Amino acid sequence: MSCLYYRSLAGAVFAVCLIVLAGCSSRSNKVPITGSLTVDGEPGSLATLTFWPGDPNGEGAGTVFTDDKGNFVSGDQKAGTGFVPGEYKVTVSRFLDRHGKPAQVSGKKSEASMETPAKESIPAAYRDRNNTPLSIQVTHESATFSLEVKAKK
To answer: Fewer CB within 10 Å, N side or C side of the chain?
Structure first.
C-alpha cells in the first residue's frame, strides 16, 4: 500500500475524531425541570416562580409560570435547555383578582387600565430571595419538585 493511502486514512480518522469531540463538547449540562406548586394545599395556579442560584456568582437564574393546575415545566432535554445543576432559592409571586381568583398580570402599560385590580397573595418572605424558605437541588437524577407555600397565618 502506498504512503498516500495511509495519509488519506489518517486524515479521515482525524476528521472523524474532531467531529465526535465537537459533538460531545456542545452538549449542554442543563437539566429540564418540572414540578408543582401548592398554596395552602390548593394548586398554585398562575404563579410566577423565580429560581435564584444558591451561589451569588452562579449562573442560571430563571423564571417559570405555573399553569391553572399549579404545574410548571422549564427546559427541554433534546434542546439542552433548563437549569445548570446546583442549589436554587425559589421565590413565588401570585396575584388574586377582587374575587380571590388567580389573575394574570401582564405588566403592559397599555393593558393596565383594562385589567381588574389585583393584589399580591403570597407572603413577603416567599417573594424575597434572601428570606424565602423554598429551595431546590437540581441534579441530573432529581429534576421534579413539589413546592408548598403557606399563605394563611
So the answer is: C
Cell 389573575 belongs to which residue?
Answer: 103
Closest CA to 138 of 55, 57, 65, 79: 55
Does the residue 79 lie in any domain?
yes
Residue at grid coordinates 479521515: 12
Domain range enclosing 93: 33-149
Q: For 38-70, how does the pLDDT look when each residue is reduced to its tens digit (9 = 90+)?
A: 999 999 999 999 999 988 777 788 999 999 999
Q: Is residue 16 part of a domain?
A: no
* The 3-state secondary structure of 90-125, one letter per residue: EEEECEECCCCCEECCCCCHHHHCCCCCCEECCCHH
**Can you name the residues that pair with 87 across neighbouring β-strands?**
137
Would you say residue 76 has pLDDT above 50? Answer: yes
Q: Phi and psi dihedrals of 90, rounded to 5?
A: -120, 125
At 61, phi and psi to the nearest 5? -65, 145
Q: CATH number of the domain at 91, please.
A: 2.60.40
